[in-house]
Amino acid sequence: MIIVTGAAGFIGSGLISQLNTEGFKSIIAVDDFSKIEKAANLEGKTIKEKVERSELFSWIDQNYRDVEFIFHIGARTNTTEFDKQIFDELNVNYSKEIWNRCVEYQIPLVYASSAATYGLGELGYDDNEATISQLKPLNPYGDSKNEFDIWALAQEKKPLFWAGLKFFNVYGPNEYHKARMASVIMHAYNQIKATDKMKLFRSHNPDYRDGEQMRDFIYVKDLIDVCIFLMHHRKNSGIYNLGSGQARTFKDLVENTFKAMDKTPDISFIDTPIDIRDKYQYFTEANMNKLRSIGYNKPFHTLEEGVADYVKNYLSSGAYL
């Protein structure tokens, strides 16, 4: 059996879909299943059992002999949430409980960290474990992810294999429920469909022109492929970046969305909201050498390829991965 936390969410549900495609049917789906807006993400998928998030630890204690692998994807991911207690509970302490059971029962583990740990990128975007304790995230979400990374590295007892993946800007199908936290591509698609126009955040940094803020956008299908590679690989434990390795501008992103919709670009700019303005990353780009060095050699989608696939095969029809 393979446990996937955050199973009804954006990345977790896509991961289950690909696991099913590769023949893995004994999936234990873990989530807060009271959130019905995510229910469609699991329709049509083969799942052995649904386990409520709050019941997972007692479930593992009873069934650990049959658990082959854990993907801990679930987390509170709202970067505009500033209640540290929520992040302590769901992102730090919950992850520690999973880790401790993986140690006790010798279950291999892949868990989701985040590029939010890098803050403004003062130390660059290298997944060098020696500098993780020096990183300065910009919000409680990033703090929680970095706190757990630091804790994991400090543990004397570790799972027989583990990997923490610093997800960069992920986009793709199954994020329909994410509202404000959905990718810019999904927001762009909806705006363009409704108005034939798109509004982007204005730059409040003199080093970047409007629309030329840069992020490392990674298509969710590539991220899932890496997760499954690590499930099979099961060596070279550690913390890894997971982006495309190529920073692109938001203008590039939106222009490609217009193109995929067969529309002429019409982009204007609005002020970045005050509540996130001083915590806004103007540049991120994953150094992907570490993952490549352990044998992952599959190419990532270019931004053009990923946006075209997402828009034409999912957003335009409301299809799910």
From TrEMBL:
Pfam families cross-referenced by the UniProt entry: Epimerase
Domain of life: Bacteria
CDD domains in the cross-refs: ADP_GME_SDR_e
Annotated residues for binding of NADP(+): F10, I11, D31, D32, K38, R53, I73, G74, A75, R76, T77, K145, V170, K178
NAD-dependent epimerase/dehydratase domain location: 2-243
Any one biological process term the GO annotation gives: carbohydrate metabolic process
GO molecular function, one term: ADP-glyceromanno-heptose 6-epimerase activity
Entry's transmembrane regions: none
Keyword Electron transport: no
Swiss-Prot/TrEMBL cofactor(s): NADP(+)
Coiled-coil spans in chain: none
Active-site residue numbers: Y141 (proton acceptor), K178 (proton acceptor)
Binding-site residues, substrate: N169, R180, H187, F201, R202, S203, H204, R215, Y280
Record note on cofactor: Binds 1 NADP(+) per subunit.
Domain comment (free text): Contains a large N-terminal NADP-binding domain, and a smaller C-terminal substrate-binding domain.
Protein family according to the UniProt entry: Belongs to the NAD(P)-dependent epimerase/dehydratase family. HldD subfamily.
Oligomer status and interactors: Homopentamer.
Protein name, UniProt field: ADP-L-glycero-D-manno-heptose-6-epimerase
Organism encoding this protein: Dyadobacter luteus
